[in-house]
Amino acid sequence: MTDKRLKEHPILPIPSLQKISFTWNGSTMWALPDEMISSALLANGVKIFGKHKKDGSPQGIFCANGQCSQCMVLLNDFPVKACMTKISAGDEVAELRGDPIFPKKSNAPYSKEIKRIELPALILGGGPAGLSAGIELGKMGIKSLLIDDKPSLGGKLLLQTHRFFGSISAVHAGTRGIEIAKKLESEIKKHPSIEIWTNSTALGIFRDRVVGILKEGKEYVILKPQVTLVATGARERSIVFRGNTLPGVIGAGAFQTLVNRDLVKISDRLFIIGGGNVGLIAGYHALQAGIEVVGLAEAMPECGGYKVHKDKLIRAGVPIYTNHTIISANGRTEVESVTISEVNELFRPVEGSERSFKCDTILVAVGLDPVNEFAIKAKKFGMHVLSAGDAEEIAEASAAMFAGKIRGVEMAKMLGADAPDVPENWVKTAEILKSRPGRTENKKNQNCEDGIVPVFHCYQEIPCNPCSSVCPQHLIKIEEADIRHLPVFLGGKSGKKCVGCEKCVTICPGLAVTLVDYRNDPQNPTVTIAHEFSNRATREGDSVTAISSEGEPLGDVTVTNVRTIEKNDHTILLKLQAPKNIAARIAGIRVQELWVSEAMEEKITRITDDTIVCRCERITAGTIRELIRKGYRDVNEVKAVTRAGMGACQGKTCQPLIKRLFSEEGVPFTDVTENTRRPLFIEVPIGIFAGVSEEK
Ligand code: SF4
Ligand code: SF4
Ligand code: FES
Question: Lower CB density within 10 Å: C or N end of the chain?
Answer without folding.
Answer: N
